[in-house]
Specification:
Elements lengths: L1 E4 L6 H10 L4 E4 L2 H5 L3 E4 L5 H10 L3 H9 L4 E4 L1 H4 L4 E2 L13 E5 L10 E9 L12 E8 L1 E5 L5 E6 L3 E8 L2 E4 L7 H12 L2
Parallel strand pairs: 1-2, 1-3, 3-4, 4-12, 5-6
Antiparallel strand pairs: 6-9, 7-8, 7-10, 10-11, 11-12
Length: 201
């Protein structure tokens, strides 16, 4: 069973639908017992950093997430779910993130007439040995929707990068923690392959 954390994020159902498509049992929940007894846990996310942290707090999910990480249950953050794993975001100064991983979320610079938010397909460069991308080529196209990006403190956790106005850390892996800035649930066969790799961990 895969638990999808329910904190009113906008892409819960599309993540659920993609997982069901590849034959996985899912539950959208904020029940701690259900979450802690799941095989895998996913933190989706669409929206603002500060609002999301407030909702995670209001639904008592912050300590549950820490417990999931401590228990070594494979955990996947998607889009805003990736950003929340880090310490802070330029989107909402003064709001502290989960701080599970070290790094900052920064605004995509408005240069070279690039459109913000970054919305659409972009190629990612994949690091050798990245577990989420097992069986895939060194470059894949995936679907992004974001205005802010990750700058991880430790380059060793970066599993994939992309370029869009700046150098973006597009995916990270650290122990049982995995995260993607892009949306695997909207990335066609490539995204389904990534989700299947997560399921198979």
């Amino acid at each position: 069973m895969i638990a999808i954390l329910d904190y009113d994020a906008g892409n819960l159902r599309s993540v659920e639908k993609a997982l069901n498509y590849i034959g996985e049992d899912t539950v959208i929940t904020r029940d701690k017992d259900v979450i802690m007894n799941s095989d895998k846990v996913i933190l989706p996310g669409v929206g603002s950093f500060g609002d999301a942290m407030e909702k995670l707090n209001n639904y008592n999910l912050i300590n549950t997430i820490y417990d999931v990480v401590d228990k070594k249950i494979p955990f996947l953050g998607i889009c805003l779910g990736l950003q929340l794993l880090f310490e802070e975001s330029e989107e909402t100064p003064g709001v502290t993130g989960l701080g599970i991983l070290k790094g900052r979320i920064k605004k995509i610079p408005s240069i070279d007439n690039i459109k913000i938010p970054h919305m659409g397909w972009n190629s990612i460069d994949i690091k050798d040995g990245a577990k989420l991308f097992r069986g895939m080529s060194k470059q894949e196209y995936v679907y992004f929707v974001h205005s802010y990006y990750l700058e991880a403190e430790d380059e060793n956790i970066v599993a994939a990068t992309t370029e869009y106005g700046t150098h973006i850390h597009a995916s990270v892996e650290s122990g049982n923690i995995f995260a993607c800035q892009f949306h695997p649930e909207k990335s066609s066969e490539t995204g389904l392959h990534i989700l299947q790799n997560f399921v198979n961990l």
